[in-house]
Design goal:
about 130 residues, three-stranded antiparallel β-sheet, globular
Length: about 130
């Protein structure tokens, strides 16, 4: 999990905590991990905009109006290299990650879309 923001603040060499965002007046804390990090740091952000769409939140970060907590792979796919260069991207502490799993219906025949999804998911896990 990573945090992205556009600001002149210094960067952290180990991992970011919610205190890194205390100077951000407009921050979205829509996700569970973001809310927990902010609460643990004693920060109560004033949210002027929220969205369930991480691409919208990242676009707001690029415009300089807040911060966003999101997985690294979303940063890489949602933003151009030029946009990424405008942001401070901070890795969060290991406690900001969590396992995911998925289930699917057993079938007597292979379904190519499902097989491809599983292959890509395994590839992503290995590269993480």
């Amino acid at each position: 999990m990573y945090a992205a923001m556009r600001s002149p603040q210094g960067t952290c060499t180990r991992c970011a905590t919610a205190r890194s965002f205390s100077a951000q007046p407009q921050i979205s804390a829509g996700g569970r991990i973001g809310r927990e990090l902010l609460r643990a740091s004693g920060i109560s952000p004033i949210s002027k905009a929220t969205s369930e769409n991480v691409e919208t939140l990242l676009a707001l970060c690029v415009q300089g109006v807040g911060a966003c907590f999101c997985p690294e792979n979303l940063l890489q796919t949602a933003l151009s290299p030029e946009q990424l260069a405008q942001l401070h991207i901070l890795p969060l502490c290991p406690s900001a990650s969590y396992p995911i799993c998925f289930g699917y219906l057993r079938r007597s025949y292979p379904w190519s879309v499902l097989s491809e999804f599983i292959r890509i998911a395994r590839e992503q896990i290995r590269s993480a």
